[in-house]
């Protein structure tokens, strides 16, 4: 009697595939886009000049350029550190600040993309990745401005000053033009916060409220930070099951939630990387985890 063969393992059973699928949806899409745009030039499959946004070519039909300019992280160590930096703060924002609405975080990305294109048009900068990563950093640290952090594990400072420190490092390592381009991300984060949070809280209109059509397009998804769980509309999905928003606010935050506290650099096409270490605080419980700086203990 022939013994039946065990069922073939599904590709979803692969450890790396499972880890990839457990990432929150916007961050996962963001990292996939970075890989799809930044890796081909490393293998000489496409020239980097085809990925940056020169408006003269964009208006002639090369309409992919504004998007690839947002996702192109350069190469070498700048790409490695830039991806890690973008991943860390995108995870912190999506799982903690925007954890109750995937649509809200995706709308933040959409606004940032348009705003960065607008600002960089006037300074002639064709690459937006560095600015976007600093925007993510600034938006994150504005949630816990008094949190203690160290730059390179040596220089202590409050997290509110981290974007300024990174801009200074970019100025030293890459010059004023790259610093100006990167600073548009800093400006974008403050524009978003003012129009989305500060102005409405003082009785003004919320000009950046996520439109209903955008929520219908993406669904009312929520991400359970640290659990790889994505819920939509109170219905159990492949990622897990839904929970009430107030449960998220009261649930204990485990060290696995978020990405930890490692900040290794601000990668960008044409700029070197810098590093910092962000430590855990209590209070608003926005960030969790511990980490080590590049070259630290």
From TrEMBL:
GO terms for biological process: response to stress. InterPro entries: DER1, Rhomboid-like_sf. The chain crosses the membrane at residues 29-46, 67-85, 105-123. The keyword Transcription does not apply. Residues 246-297 are annotated as: Disordered. It is found in: Endoplasmic reticulum membrane. It comes from the Eukaryota. It is a multi-pass membrane protein. GO terms for cellular component: endoplasmic reticulum membrane. Keywords: Endoplasmic reticulum, Membrane, Transmembrane, Transmembrane helix. Residues 269-291 have a biased composition (Low complexity). Belongs to the derlin family. May be involved in the degradation of misfolded endoplasmic reticulum (ER) luminal proteins. This is Derlin. It comes from Protomyces lactucae-debilis. The lineage of its organism: Eukaryota, Fungi, Dikarya, Ascomycota, Taphrinomycotina.
């Amino acid at each position: 009697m022939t013994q039946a063969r065990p069922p073939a393992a599904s590709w979803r059973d692969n450890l790396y595939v499972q880890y990839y699928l457990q990432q929150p949806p916007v961050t996962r899409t963001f990292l996939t886009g970075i890989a799809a745009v930044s890796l081909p030039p490393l293998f000489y499959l496409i020239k980097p000049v085809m990925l940056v946004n020169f408006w003269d070519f964009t208006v002639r039909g090369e309409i992919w350029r504004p998007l690839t300019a947002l996702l192109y992280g350069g190469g070498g160590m700048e790409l490695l550190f830039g991806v890690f930096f973008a991943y860390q703060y995108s995870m912190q924002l999506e799982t903690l600040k925007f954890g109750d609405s995937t649509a809200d975080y995706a709308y933040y990305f959409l606004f940032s993309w348009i705003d960065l294109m607008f600002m960089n048009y006037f300074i002639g900068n064709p690459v937006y990745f560095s600015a976007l990563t600093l925007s993510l950093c600034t938006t994150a640290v504005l949630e816990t401005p008094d949190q203690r952090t160290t730059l390179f594990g040596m220089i202590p400072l409050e997290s509110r000053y981290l974007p300024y420190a990174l801009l200074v490092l970019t100025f030293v390592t890459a010059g004023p033009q790259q610093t100006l381009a990167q600073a548009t991300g800093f400006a974008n984060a403050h524009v978003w916060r003012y129009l989305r949070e500060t102005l409405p809280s003082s009785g003004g209109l919320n000009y950046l409220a996520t439109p209903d059509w955008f929520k219908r397009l993406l669904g009312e998804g929520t991400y359970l930070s640290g659990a790889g769980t994505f819920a939509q509309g109170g219905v159990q999905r492949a990622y897990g099951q839904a929970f009430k928003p107030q449960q998220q606010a009261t649930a204990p935050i485990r060290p696995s939630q978020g990405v930890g506290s490692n900040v290794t650099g601000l990668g960008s096409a044409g700029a070197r990387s810098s590093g910092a270490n962000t430590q855990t605080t209590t209070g608003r419980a926005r960030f969790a985890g511990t980490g080590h700086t590049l070259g630290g203990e």
